Amino acid sequence: MSERIFSINKEKNRFELSVEGHIAFIEYILAKGDIMFLTHTEVPKVLGGKGVGSEIVEKTLNYIKDHNYTLAPLCPFVAKYLTKHTDWKSILAPGYHV
Predict the structure, then answer these.
(1) What is each CA distance from 50 to 54, 70, 78, 97, in whole angstroms?
(2) CA 14 vs CA 24, 29, 44, 84: distances in Å
(3) Exposure string for 30-52, b = 16+ CB within 10 A, e = fewer
(4) Burial tier of 26 (Cβ tally within 10 Å: 0-12, 13-18, 19+)
(5) Are residues 37 and 74 in contact, defined by beta-carbon separation less than 8 angstroms?
(6) pLDDT for 24-57, tens place per residue?
(7) Per the confidence metrics, is the pTM higher than 0.90?
(8) Among residues 36, 37, 32, 2, which one has the least CA distance to residue 24?
(9) What span, in angstroms and rounded, lies between the C-alpha atoms of 60 and 45?
(10) Cα atoms in the 13 Å half-sphere on the side-chain side of 64
């Protein structure tokens, strides 16, 4: 299995996962009140079906939790992930549901 490197690109406001020379990413907006809005997830087609999308969502959610942010899942892919992994609902920002 190839090395997968998770990082935060603050210049582009996105979380990145480097896999096989390609970059999957989740774009974010950090708002006042420490709410992390996840707005868009993109996985290159060549990485499709390899669990890359789920992996970057999980690593991003761990980052949000570890930094005491709350989550506003505006991205449909992230929202769908949360419906399957309900243990993450504890970090949802007030007023957000999936």
Answers:
(1) 9, 28, 17, 28
(2) 10, 8, 15, 23
(3) eeeeebbbbeebebeeebeebeb
(4) buried
(5) yes
(6) 999 999 998 899 999 999 999 999 999 999 999 9
(7) yes
(8) 2
(9) 20
(10) 29
